[in-house]
Amino acid sequence: MDSRNLATDLQQQLTELQAFHTRIAILQEVGTAISHKLTLDEILPEIGRRIKWLLDFDHCSIYLVQSAFFTTVFGPPVDKTVFNNATELNRIDWVLKTRQPYCTLESTADATASPFRSHMVIPMESENGILGTINFASHKSNAFKPDDLRISNLLAMSLAASIRNAQRYEEAKELYIQLEQTERLREDMTRMLMHDLRNPLGIIQGNFDLIKLTLDDPNAYATNLRRITDGTEAVRYTIQMIDDLLDVHRLDSGILVPKLDLVDIRDLFAEKEQLYKLKADHANITFTTSVLPHVAPVLADRRLLSRVIDNLVNNAFKYTHPGGKIELLAAPYDKALHFSVRDTGQGIPAEFQKKIFDKFFQVIDANGIPLRKGTGLGLAFCRLAVEAHSGKIWVTSALDKGSTFIFTIPLET
Description:
Blueprint: H1 3-35, H2 40-50, E1 59-64, E2 69-74, H3 91-98, E3 102-103, E4 118-126, E5 129-138, H4 146-213, H5 221-253, E6 261-263, H6 265-283, E7 286-291, E8 298-300, H7 302-319, E9 325-333, E10 336-343, H8 378-388, E11 393-398, E12 402-410
Parallel strand pairs: 7-9
Antiparallel strand pairs: 1-2, 1-5, 3-4, 4-5, 6-8, 9-10, 10-12, 11-12
Helix pairs in contact: 1-2, 1-4, 4-5, 5-8, 7-8
């Protein structure tokens, strides 16, 4: 090689080296720009604006594994299949599997499967694994050179770091939102508990004060007996609310495990009929129980099962008007014993029927005012207790026609 050719080659190599250094400098600017962005919605447009400074191409897209998210950041919008080859093997999938970049450095037959003649797919990796790919395509043959592959790999590293930071930011933001919701829930729960405890305690105190004032009045016996009954009911309500709160926590955390034993449903229902007879008569509500024939004892925690029934029946009493009906029914069906509490009360709006089993949820009207009294713990307890027995619970309801709460306990096979 003569000196003139040598000088030409050196000049060409110097020019290429300077061009590569320029691209490296631009790449650093791009990396700095996207590192300041906190979300994908900010990062991707920034890449779309700056990436043509680095490479010559007609299409650029991003594919993210976690969400199967594919989006075009530059050029005509296309779908992932434009990166299929002639045998329908998707180059993006190949790169994700092998974690190796793909680049058509030469025009090949498989390029005819795509509207583009040249393709380059670069993996984006972070410390937790592969995030996705950045993809380039060109209508030209042999569009991408080895330096393009090197630059693209460096870009993919920078982009992966920014995307991972954006994902962490979203995760942190979601955790913060959950923390705020938990704190609001705690505050709401505290207010509800204080309010709901104050009411029965006020009833107890008021009745006891009236009894003291009339202890020497022989004509006040019947009235005082009613006051004692009301006070006793208020005590029972308070104890049940505290038990619900404690048991919801125990069931939710797995501390409380059902103590399974055979429970005679006819005996249990006879107990409930006796328990609620006086309350039903006092409220002018018809309360009935029914156990279909051939119902055998069921394997369950009698205390928890009894509490679930009590919660559902007491709810029915709260929202059933005088002259209405409440029915407690047990019937075997499809390898489970189905319990139902049916009432003729005010009903539950359709949009709330799934949510009422969530902790502290309350049905509200259009003004945000609770339509039902209580902390929202009773039905949450029922759900957790039933699920602890591997059963299910749901409600069917129509406004002004009543509700039917149904839960299942699996039968022994």
